Amino acid sequence: MYRYIFLFILVGFCSCSRSGKVEVKDTSGMHQASVDEVEKLVEKFILAESGSTIEIPAGFYEFNTQLIIDNLSNLTIKGAGMEETILSFKNLKTGGEGMKVVGKNIVLQDFSVYDAPGDGLKTQNCETITFRRVNATWTNGDKSENGTYAIYPVQCKNVMVDACKASHSRDAGIYVGQSENVIVKNCTAFGNVAGIEIENCSNVEVFNNKAYDNAGGILVFNLPNLPVADGKFTKVYKNEVYENNHINFAVPINESPNGNTVTLIPPGSGIILLAAKDVEIFDNKIKDNKTVGIAIANYHITGFPSEAPNWSPFSSNISIHDNEYKRPLSPPDLTKDLGKLIAAKNAHGIGKTQDIVYDGFWDDSISKNIADNPMNICIQEAEIENMYFTRFDLRKGADAIEAFKDYDAFVCDYDVKTNVQSIAKL
Amino acid sequence: MRKSVLIIVCCIPFVINFLQSCSKKIYSPEQINFEDVPYKTLSEYGFFEGEMKKMKGKERVLAYEPVSSLFSDYTEKARFVWMPEGVSCSVADSEGQTLQFPNKSILVKNFYYTNAEGGQQRIMETRLLIKTADKWNAYAYIWNDEQTEATYKITGANIPVQFTTDNGEEYNIEYIQPNKNQCKSCHNQGEQLMPIGPKVRNLNYEISYDDGKRKNQLAKWIEMGYLKDGSVINEVPCMVDYKNKSADLELRAKAYLDINCGHCHKANGPASTSGLFLTYEQEDLTKWGVYKPPVAAGSGAGLLTYDIHPGKADSSIFIHRMNSTRAGVMMPDLGRITVDKEGVTLISDWINSLEP
């Protein structure tokens, strides 16, 4: 009981969830594209041919229809710069995404996409697609009505996301879904619910990115019942993942999570793995995330049905090593169940931020004993004895949650193999 | 001298008339030069007899009607198919569903309100699907206010219109004609532009023709030379008409979702990313959305957990999205800005009938 009173006091003092500043560029001094210029640009997208370049001169363009590239090859769409060419989809009355691209050997560069009702920039069924210095954002504050994904390649092969910016999406800023051979590098994601999310992808490297002021910094998820059933082989390295303490605005404040997995993310999460396979996390700076630095979770924790064909709900073959951690002074999140669990039940004391948490579901057809490390979760951190590591056991239900500090079973080496050589020069 | 002037003056009206009749070329689909397509105006194709706005197809411009129809902001649709002489459709897949059209096939679809401003009929647009070099192309024509002509437009348009529905409800909306590339947001099969309506199971039933006779549409197509093999008439059952209240509720719901959602929500459609597959033939309950959490629904999920919560229409994301007119939330996300109230009732009834 004392412990809970202490917790409430802590909450009282530290309702210090960052509500997030929205960086809104003043576009009033920019060239405002005329109705005619806007129409001409829509026409350019429709009449574009393979092998061409669509240049978008500097200016602020407001569309009432979507920009779509329909299955072209060797096409470049090029603005005058992220800050110079702004495409606004605020006035869209139908259609979800602002820009949608399908094709082969596509380069999108040097422009911004604002305020699309659904996804900012979606590319689907693309083979070899590059996003370079592209920004996608929402300018009305962090609202649950904001669009879903800012930069959204899905069902693509050979994806390069380089030096892009994604902010204020009510789901994930940079979301790569159901794709193969992926690099996300040198990007900045902030003010989103999730900064960078890799979902049902294989052969992925995420490096040199900054993810800050999101509710969750970087996520590697595998969700059930999708055409690309599962994903594996992801490396997350040399990223700065800090101060991801933004409120989770995927649903309005005080509302319960809905069926979107992202609504479950507790603010203050650095990196979260969910049903992830063959993931290596190393050389990252994981700092001042108030709930947890790295969480290794299994799909069971969502409470959703966790059986699906060709897919496993368990996270397995995980290698975490050589990261830098810093815990902030503020206590963990209490707005989401996973936050409450960590705050109240971790193994190091109530209200203590954790560096690494393992939710502790495992496939007992492999071994009945967690000491055998059946899911091959490997942690090699220099300071592990000074870190806050918690393994939960949630299998006996909410009334009998157990938490353990002991990390010995998980000290091991595991090499995750990725090969993105072929797309490194995109 | 005077006499000849008089003769000339008298002849002027005839000359003018003659010149006019020369300049007023009579068009017909047989004369279409497919290399010049798309024409600037709809009249140049010559699909219709007499006044174009009466939408009466010429002899080989055959009306057709899928048994269940996509909701498009309460518009009525007058659809026609035309093929050159000597070629015909074949049935393309093993399920006997898809019709493989020959090159130079044209599908014509007019969107109109029977009861628009002043109780008048108003045609909004005519969309053409034309197949050349083994590829379909989509061209949309916007009708003028005088209803005498429709003009090709690729960038889409927002057109204010007032209309009254069959139930007497009045609407005042901005009808949205999609831009050319948006066509493929629905007409998409593995990134190839494809027709949606003309499938065997959608056409295999009787309609009334201009001669006043009722006939099975596929039988009529065979009679016209538009379809070769009639065996599918007996082999492939027709989908139900979702508006037919005496039909089975589940089949009606599935027909509605097929024609309104299944073009995108299928294995080789753009919405396959969601893992939600809504074609008439789908039998896997999870793929239908039963107890399935959304993937990329964003604000479309509202405060709800499952696409379909059996027994609870109000807690199902389906109903939430069908009831919305907000871009980003509403489904379908193109082709409507009003709520299909009858559709919502149908799908709600069906979800409520499902055992939890």
Share of residues in helices of chain A: under 10%
Strand content of chain A: 35-45%
Principal-axis shape of chain A equals globular
Question: What percent of residues of chain B are in strands?
Answer: 15-25%
N-to-C terminal Cα separation of chain A, in Å?
58 Å
Principal-axes geometry of chain B comes out as: globular
Number of domains of chain B: 2
Indicate the low-confidence ranges of chain A by residue numbers.
1-19
Characteristics:
heterodimer; A: 426 residues; mainly beta; 29-stranded mixed sheet; 29 strands; globular; disordered N terminus; B: 356 residues; alpha+beta; 2 domains; 6-stranded antiparallel sheet; two-stranded antiparallel sheet; 9 helices; 20% strand
Give a topology summary.
The complex is a heterodimer of chains A (426) and B (356).
Chain A: H1 2-13, H2 35-47, E1 53-56, E2 59-62, E3 67-79, E4 85-88, E5 99-114, E6 121-124, E7 127-137, E8 149-154, E9 157-162, E10 165-167, E11 172-177, E12 180-185, E13 188-190, E14 194-199, E15 202-207, E16 210-212, E17 216-221, E18 234-237, E19 240-242, E20 269-274, E21 277-282, E22 285-287, E23 292-297, E24 316-321, E25 324-326, H3 337-345, E26 354-358, E27 377-380, E28 389-393, E29 402-404
Parallel strand pairs in A: 1-3, 2-4, 3-5, 4-5, 5-6, 5-7, 6-8, 7-9, 7-10, 8-11, 9-12, 10-13, 11-14, 12-15, 13-16, 14-17, 15-18, 16-19, 17-20, 18-21, 19-22, 20-23, 21-24, 22-25, 23-26, 24-27, 26-28
Antiparallel strand pairs in A: 28-29
Chain B: H1 2-23, E1 62-64, E2 76-82, E3 90-91, E4 99-100, E5 106-113, E6 122-132, E7 135-143, E8 150-152, E9 157-164, E10 170-177, H2 183-186, E11 188-189, E12 192-193, H3 200-203, E13 206-208, E14 214-216, H4 217-224, H5 232-235, H6 249-261, H7 285-288, H8 317-322, H9 341-353
Helix pairs in contact in B: 6-9
